[in-house]
Amino acid sequence: MEYSHEIKKGVLILKLSGDLIGENHGPELISVVSDAINNDIIFCAIDIQNVRYINSSGIGVLITILTKFRNKGGEVVLIQPSDSVQKLLIITKLNAIFTVVPDLDHAFKELVKS
Predict the structure, then answer these.
(1) Helix (H), strand (E) at residue 61
(2) pLDDT, tens digit, for every residue of 7-64?
(3) I need a surface site. Which of 57, 58, 85, 100 has the fewest CB within 10 A?
(4) CA gap 29, 83 in Å, rounded
(5) Which residues contact 97 (CB under 8 A, 6 or more apart)?
(6) Are 111 and 79 spatial neighbours (Cβ–Cβ below 8 Å)?
């Protein structure tokens, strides 16, 4: 998996690609999230349109990120999951926990209203 991150309009934007297998990059992602939260960033948009596969550890990473932001009064949205990831979100019922948006503009609008 590869990832990049930036902060724009007070929102941490994580762009993930490849396979989200938590053992490999999970601790790094959690560290990026913790740094952002320590700098008073409480919103996060995770762009997962280029993620092909997520295993159970990867799901754990997403839930950990969501929990960290919500514990600070913030929110997380997922941007444009691939078909296979969207099916996984439905099967695991995570689509009821995460807000899914089609693009970054919608992510900003969704996060501002939270």
Answers:
(1) helix 56-71
(2) 999 999 999 999 988 777 889 999 999 999 999 999 999 999 999 999 999 999 999 9
(3) 57
(4) 23
(5) 63, 66
(6) no
